[in-house]
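User: I'm putting together a teaching handout on how multi-component assemblies are represented. Below are the sequence lines for each component of a complex, exactly as they appear in our records. Could you produce the 3D structure of the whole assembly as structure tokens, so the students can see both representations side by side? Please keep the chain order the same as the input.
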Amino acid sequence: MPNTKSKSSAPKRAPYVAPPKLAPVLPPFVPKKGMHPIQLVRGMRDLLPTDQHYWKQLAVQSEKIAEEYGYERIDTPIVEETTLFVRGVGKATDIVEKELYSWETPGGESISLRPEGTASVVRAYVQHGMLNQPQPVKLWYTGPLFRHDRPQADRFRQFFTTGFECIGDAEPVIDAQLIIMAWNFFKALGIDVTVRVNSLGTPESRINYKNALVTYFRSKRHQLSEEDKKRLLKNPLRVLDSKDPGMQELKMEAPQMVDWLDEESKSHFMRVLEYLDEVGVPYQLDPYLVRGLDYYTKTVFEIYATSDDQELAQSALGGGGRYDGLVELLGGRPTPAAGFGLGLDRIVSRLKKKSPVVESARHIDVFLAQLGEMGRKKALALFEEFREAGIMVGEAFAKSSIKSQMEIANRRTAKWTMVIGQKEVLDGTAILRDMDSGTQEIVDVKKAIHEVKKKLGLV
RNA sequence: GUGGUCGUAGUUCAAUGGUAGAACACCGCUCUGUGGCAGCGGCCACGUGGGUUCGAUUCCCAUCGAUCACCCCA
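Assistant: Of course. Below is the structure of the complete assembly, with chains in the same order as your input.
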């Protein structure tokens, strides 16, 4: 090391460590016939350039809504300690029981790809002491989630969501405003949706209700299908959602959730609905709406595309609710909170169906066509000048025939094409062609930028 | 995770127990000096593995993937 005179304040140099031995050189990879083609891992997807503008639209809309309602962006890792989800989402939920991507690290920690966003945000809220900020703390995020489901149309193992979490206030107006936000999000995108709402009450009232439900259906056991008997054990509230035709009558007489809500939850729910009425956001009461995460309390809601056609609109575009117990569950002070998430993949899919036409070509002001090596050099340099002047330039420097360059200029709907060949370079000129009329003129190359600006009305 | 359907060029679709065609797209030429048109040419596929068969893209099995329902939700 030539560095002999080290400054006294400089930190001590770390002791020299020999670089690891290089791996033995492997023979070069030779493709063989019969090799299986490498393709996407099941449930994964590529977001192709042709679809990017839909995604961008959602990104813009998410940010806009967040700003309008005073939510601040937060990004949490896609990997968390497994315990976060086991505790937060609930051990017995499908999401944790069979859909979690978990593994053990070399260091022996059990970690998981996040299957939802709320737990991480609450973890961050607790860990960074956000309880010391003015309450409620309003946070939003967007990113990928992972669940090991069986894939289907609009159902992926990696999917993208945008979520909004409002932590630190118990008022029903919070719940209502979250629903209003979600409603406005879809309204701005021009997607017709139906909001379904329900109240699960406090954990205690929910348990009482569950027990009542189980008692009721047990007494009618002989009338239940095998499927529903299983459900009764696993998730009694789901029995009410059964499609079994024989169930319809039984359901009519089954205990209703509303009747088992504690007084506080009931009045909370009524007030949420009043607020929605006040703003004019339509909703459907859905007494069978249960969410797949244990942390929900009181208000829950889901958003579905309004199926105007025969398309099955059975998959929710978004959903959320209140989770008053979660902050405490994750080690924070008892803190009420509520939030919702939006399924971006499914929303993109709706947007695509709604307006499948795509205008792909990016806008360019002028296309630079070159001819011969001298022309190419000049055009390459000119491109930089245009770029620095803020003019959008198109080019195909790798092409040599003027014809193919004109074709590309045309395809990219350039209004102007500037042609520079050997002759022009020697003369210090350039040809400026109007692509609509086909007329062209010779301009001084030194004034080329000014000339183009003039044509574009920028000067 | 359970059950059903499906799997041919980049895309949309054909045909066939004797190894596959078209359209569009892409690349090139006609045309190193001018795009939208045209003509000509090129490129590219039977998801993978096994079985039956003289011979399989076709029939059978498995597998992978997609899709639908269940399930679940985003």
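A couple of points students might notice: The two ends of chain A are 57 Å apart (CA to CA). Residues 186 and 227 of chain A are 36 Å apart (CA to CA).
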